[in-house]
Design goal:
Blueprint: E1 17-18, E2 25-26, H1 67-75, H2 84-97, H3 102-107, H4 109-115, H5 121-124, H6 129-136, H7 145-163, H8 168-173, E3 181-182, H9 196-207, H10 215-224, E4 228-229, H11 236-240
Parallel strand pairs: 3-4
Antiparallel strand pairs: 1-2
Helix pairs in contact: 2-7, 2-10, 9-10
Length: 260
């Protein structure tokens, strides 16, 4: 879950694809843009009109057969979340993924949980130079100074948001009026890399002081926390997380997302 402004898809498949919250690229050595701007958070290489018909066990092709990916696909990805701690955790992890494969981050998730005090923003916001040095020496996380600094800065931005009487859920769900977007994609190549909603949310998060929140990262994030349902319609999870229940979804042939 670089800048393909029109298309992208969900988390990377375990063996050969890379993810962004919705995206596709070959896992091997293909990098993604990094940095605090419009860094991608997931695989985004177009792999053609891959589509399939639903069966009781059909899944989105990107999850492959790796147990870690299958569990993430079956239990978490695309499930609507309004839990503040979970929303903050996923924002931190999506930012950490910029320029890397989602597999790297998913395998290090427990390392992040340990190193970042269970994703507690109040504790993270107080990190000083000694803690930063410890994090940069910790093999359980991505040891990138900019990403570590962004995690700390984002914790502070989150606390400022709460002090102003708002929550991250209020901000994340605002572009959707609180209702998950139920899309109807039949092929991986149809899934966008960004949308007008992710563009707007990216700008709002940046205005609030958050870093590593470019539109492609934000769209990957929206997929992960279920603000958009980007399971393919042939996947058994599409209906389980709300597919077919309305919610203003897009389908092939709909107006393309803004490139702004």
């Amino acid at each position: 879950m670089a800048a393909r402004a029109s298309r992208r898809t969900p988390p990377d498949s375990p063996s050969s694809w890379r993810r962004a919250s919705g995206r596709w690229e070959v896992e091997a050595s293909r990098g993604r843009e990094s940095g605090g701007g419009d860094a991608a958070c997931a695989p985004r290489e177009r792999i053609g009109a891959v589509s399939f018909h639903p069966t009781p066990t059909a899944r989105c092709p990107w999850c492959g057969d790796d147990p870690l990916y299958v569990a993430y696909h079956d239990e978490e990805w695309g499930v609507p979340s309004r839990d503040e701690r979970h929303l903050f955790e996923m924002l931190l992890l999506e930012g950490a993924q910029a320029g890397l494969s989602w597999s790297t981050i998913l395998k290090k998730r427990e390392g992040y949980r340990r190193a970042f005090d269970g994703f507690d923003p109040e504790k993270i916001a107080r990190y000083g130079a000694r803690k930063v040095a410890s994090l940069l020496a910790d093999p359980g996380i991505v040891r990138n100074r900019l990403k570590v600094a962004a995690a700390i800065g984002n914790a502070r931005a989150y606390l400022d948001l709460r002090a102003a009487g708002r929550g991250l859920a209020d901000v994340v769900w605002a572009p959707f009026d609180g209702v998950p977007r139920q899309n109807r994609w039949r092929a991986l190549a149809e899934v966008p890399a960004r949308t007008p909603e992710s563009d707007a949310l990216s700008k709002e998060l940046a205005r609030l002081g958050f870093k590593f929140v470019g539109s492609t990262i934000v769209y990957a994030y929206l997929q992960a926390v279920g603000a958009v349902n980007d399971h393919l319609v042939g996947c058994f999870r599409w209906r389980e997380v709300g597919g077919g229940a309305g919610g203003g979804g897009r389908r092939r042939g709909a107006a393309p997302p803004s490139s702004g």
